[in-house]
């Protein structure tokens, strides 16, 4: 049985992604498109579109075009969409990188994609330079002005402003610089994001121009933002949620993006008050702040009209408390990096715990996890999704792509759920092993591999355990080796957690650890995570 949503299908324009997103730039030329939370740096829509075209010319002067990859390593800043769309307009693809990742992790991503241009911020120049020595990156381009130590580190890099001053750069006109006429929206890549998929290490998710247009179009239909609205851009643009729903859907609809480089509770609440923010995109961690923190009472948040939660499951009670406190509706969406905007609460009274109904153009089916048989209403099974927004595949990973993408276009999500009779989707559990820490994806396989390099660890398993603030935190279950000599100091949980923390990004740290006698495994050696989760539930 194939489930569809209440809204009719809509055509996906056959054009390039940048042309689609910036189609209103000329008519909204005087309106602010992006502004830093401090108010120090801002671009109108006219200035943004002009900068995109000039930067695209600067990239072409460097030989950048179709088949090339530009990487962006930066927190959210007003110039981020300029760099992103300049590369897209020049015909290349953009790989967005998480500044919290380690040099080892980032180098792997850059080498896999073969990126030779890296755009970064002053705060990340040192890391960018370290990456250039280990990758194919030949030029580092830096946003803004570097000061102090950052200015010293910025020696030998290219200021972003000089990219806009290239001889091939040109002002905003309909003719120049022309887009690459050879772009095939259905086949050519425009974005590379990273996801651990259903299992394993992070993989590059390949999204075409058509995929991205479909994603942004669906977002604008199920969670529309008025042209007079202001959006607080806190979800990072390197994440699918921030890149598609926050940055590009807002620009498409003519809203103003107020960017924040990093989340701080008081600064966040102050920004809502001072900028008169009307739309928030949040992860469940922020929902807890809005629902329970006494800080909220110190600020005027009356400008808020609506809130959309994503990145991880939102507790219905937390949503109710936040909605009651703020007096504005909170909706929840569901998707994944491989197919972001798949479901959204469309009406005013969704069922508690539901993630809503299918967005336009989305087909879905539920299958038995053992037999693959299609299931009907109120029957739990794996959720499969099909639509024009579904990724082209994983970068350099044909086997992994075949495992999740069926020949008929349906994508295996790895999530367990069901549809009720009203057509609302309920997520029951995750078949896949991915951990969602404050909206960030954490691969247990990656953490287990690091644990096993500790000299005192004989075996290890990692699962996500519930946490009110973070949604989930990684917890390790470790079998320790017997001391080789009486003088050897036995391992401690703190020692092992610190060992992992030194080797991963902060959001990937193991936050809890328990010693056990044996890691439960199947006859073929796979970790039985479900039994560890049952053990954890019983302990609580």
From TrEMBL:
Residues 446-526 form the AMP-binding enzyme C-terminal domain. It comes from the Bacteria. Coiled coil: none annotated. Residues 23-395 form the AMP-dependent synthetase/ligase domain. It holds the Pfam family AMP-binding. GO terms for molecular function: ATP binding; CoA-ligase activity. Keywords: ATP-binding, Ligase, Nucleotide-binding. Gene3D superfamilies: 3.30.300.30, N-terminal domain of ligase-like (3.40.50.12780). Belongs to the ATP-dependent AMP-binding enzyme family. This is Acyl-CoA synthetase (AMP-forming)/AMP-acid ligase II.
């Amino acid at each position: 049985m194939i489930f569809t949503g209440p809204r009719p299908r809509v055509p996906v324009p056959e054009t390039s992604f940048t042309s689609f997103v910036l189609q209103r730039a000329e008519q909204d030329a005087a309106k602010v498109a992006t502004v830093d939370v401090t108010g120090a740096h801002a671009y109108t829509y006219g200035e943004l579109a002009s900068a995109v075209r000039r930067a695209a010319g600067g990239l072409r002067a460097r030989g950048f075009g179709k088949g090339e990859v530009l990487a962006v390593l930066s927190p959210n800043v007003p110039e981020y969409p300029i760099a992103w769309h300049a590369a897209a307009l020049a015909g290349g693809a953009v790989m967005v990188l998480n500044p919290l990742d380690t040099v080892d992790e980032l180098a792997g991503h850059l080498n896999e994609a073969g990126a030779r241009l890296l755009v970064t911020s002053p705060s990340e120049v040192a890391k960018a330079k370290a990456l250039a020595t280990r990758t194919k990156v030949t030029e580092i381009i830096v946003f803004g002005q570097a000061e102090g130590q950052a200015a010293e580190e910025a020696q030998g890099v290219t200021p972003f402003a000089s990219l806009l001053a290239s001889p091939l750069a040109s002002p905003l006109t309909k003719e120049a610089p022309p887009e690459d006429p050879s772009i095939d929206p259905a086949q050519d890549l425009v974005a590379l994001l990273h996801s651990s998929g259903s299992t394993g290490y992070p993989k590059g998710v390949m999204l075409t121009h058509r995929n991205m247009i479909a994603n942004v179009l669906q977002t604008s239909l199920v969670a529309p933002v008025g042209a007079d609205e202001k959006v607080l851009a806190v979800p990072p643009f390197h994440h699918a949620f921030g890149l598609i729903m926050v940055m590009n859907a807002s620009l498409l609809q003519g809203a103003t993006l107020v960017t924040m480089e990093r989340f701080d509770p008081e600064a966040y609440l102050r920004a809502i008050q001072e900028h008169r923010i009307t739309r928030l995109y949040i992860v469940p961690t922020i929902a807890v702040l809005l629902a329970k923190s006494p800080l909220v009472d110190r600020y005027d948040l009356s400008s808020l009209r609506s809130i959309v939660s994503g990145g991880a499951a939102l507790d219905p009670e937390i949503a109710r408390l936040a909605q009651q406190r703020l007096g504005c509706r909170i909706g929840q969406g569901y998707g994944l990096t491989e197919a972001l905007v798949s479901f959204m609460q469309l009406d005013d009274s969704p069922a508690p715990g539901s993630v809503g109904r299918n967005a336009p153009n989305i087909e879905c089916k539920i299958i038995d996890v053992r037999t693959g048989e299609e299931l009907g209403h109120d029957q739990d099974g794996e959720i499969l999704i099909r639509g024009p927004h579904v990724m082209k595949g994983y970068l350099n990973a044909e086997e992994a792509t075949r495992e999740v993408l069926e020949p008929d276009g349906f994508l295996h999500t790895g999530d367990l759920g069901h549809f009720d009779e009203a057509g609302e989707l309920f997520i029951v559990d995750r078949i896949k092993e991915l951990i969602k820490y404050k909206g960030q994806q954490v691969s247990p396989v990656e953490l287990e591999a690091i644990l096993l390099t500790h000299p005192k660890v004989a075996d290890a398993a990692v699962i996500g355990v519930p946490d009110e603030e973070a949604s989930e935190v990684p917890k390790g279950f470790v079998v320790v080796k017997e001391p080789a000599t009486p003088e050897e100091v036995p391992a401690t949980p703190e020692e092992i957690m610190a060992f992992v923390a030194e080797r991963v990004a902060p959001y990937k740290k193991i936050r809890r650890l328990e010693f056990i006698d044996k890691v439960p495994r199947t006859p073929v050696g796979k970790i039985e995570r479900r039994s560890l989760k049952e053990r954890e539930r019983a302990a609580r």
